[in-house]
Each structure stands twice: as structure tokens, then as C-alpha cells.
């Protein structure tokens, strides 16, 4: 079955940068649109960045200009580079297929201190 493993989270000061990674196993990635989602405490999970199989990208207004999603189909990996981080970016970050998500991974925790 498909497994998603996110990594790279941590604690960073406001204004700092972080890159989170996601490795996918159990399937090929080449023809799949992928997204990075986040869930802040007490809030619903939201899609913040998406990359199509052809490489085109979309971002939510809250992260546009600060986050960059990328993919490496050979490594079956998806990345999210985050700069100019804000305390409101604090959340658990997940990757998954968009649409029709697979079973969710454990995510990686990003904490931005003010």
C-alpha cells in the first residue's frame, strides 16, 4: 500500500526558513498531482501548495510568495521550501495526493516562535 513519510520539521524563529520533505512508497509518483497540507491546533487541515504532474504549481494566499513546492519523481519525493516564516505557519505539515488522498502519514511538526 502507499505510504507517506514526512520529515524536516522543527522549531524556527519568525522570519526563518525551513524545508520539509515527503517520500512516497508503494506507487509511482510521475503522473500524480501532489499537495502539501497543514493542520494547525484546533483548525481543519488545509491545502497550502500543489504541484501537478507536469510541474505547474498553485499556492494558497496565506503562503504565496513565501513557500515553494517542488518534486523529484525519480526519488519519489516532494518538497516544501518555506521562507519568511510566521507564527501562524505553526502546524503539522502533511503531503498527499490531490485530489483523492491516500492514507495520511504522520506529518512533520513545524513550530515558528515569535
Describe the structure.
This protein is an all-beta fold and 114 residues long. Helices cover 0% and strands 50% of the residues. The protein has no helices and ten strands. The chain has strands at residues 3-7, 10-13, 18-25, 34-39, 46-51, 57-59, 67-72, 77-82, 91-97, 108-113. The strands form two sheets. Strands 2-10-9-4-5-6 form a six-stranded mixed sheet, with no helix packed on it. The protein has a four-stranded antiparallel sheet with strand order 1-3-8-7, with no helix packed on it.
Low-confidence parts? none
Adjacency order of strands in the biggest sheet = 2-10-9-4-5-6
* Rounded Rg: 13 Å
- Shape verdict: globular
* Structure summary, number of beta strands: 10
Cα end-to-end separation:
40 Å
DSSP helical segment count: 0
Rounded mean pLDDT score: 97
Short structural summary:
The chain is an all-beta fold and 114 residues long. Helices cover 0% and strands 50% of the residues.
Offer a few descriptive terms.
114 residues, mainly beta, 6-stranded mixed sheet, 4-stranded antiparallel sheet, 10 strands, 0% helix, globular
Chain-wise SSE layout:
Blueprint: E1 3-7, E2 10-13, E3 18-25, E4 34-39, E5 46-51, E6 57-59, E7 67-72, E8 77-82, E9 91-97, E10 108-113
Parallel strand pairs: 2-10
Antiparallel strand pairs: 1-3, 3-8, 4-5, 4-9, 5-6, 7-8, 9-10
Amino acid at each position: 500500500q502507499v505510504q507517506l513519510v514526512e520529515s524536516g520539521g522543527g522549531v524556527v524563529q519568525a522570519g526563518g526558513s525551513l524545508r520539509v520533505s515527503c517520500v512516497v512508497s508503494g506507487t509511482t509518483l510521475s503522473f500524480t498531482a501532489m499537495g502539501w497540507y497543514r493542520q494547525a491546533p484546533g483548525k481543519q487541515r488545509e491545502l497550502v501548495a500543489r504541484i501537478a504532474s507536469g510541474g505547474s504549481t498553485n499556492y494558497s494566499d496565506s503562503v504565496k510568495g513565501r513557500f515553494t513546492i517542488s518534486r523529484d519523481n525519480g526519488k519519489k519525493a516532494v518538497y516544501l521550501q518555506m521562507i519568511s516564516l510566521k507564527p501562524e505557519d505553526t502546524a503539522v505539515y502533511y503531503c498527499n495526493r490531490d485530489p483523492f488522498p491516500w492514507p495520511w502519514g504522520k506529518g512533520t511538526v513545524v513550530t515558528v516562535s515569535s
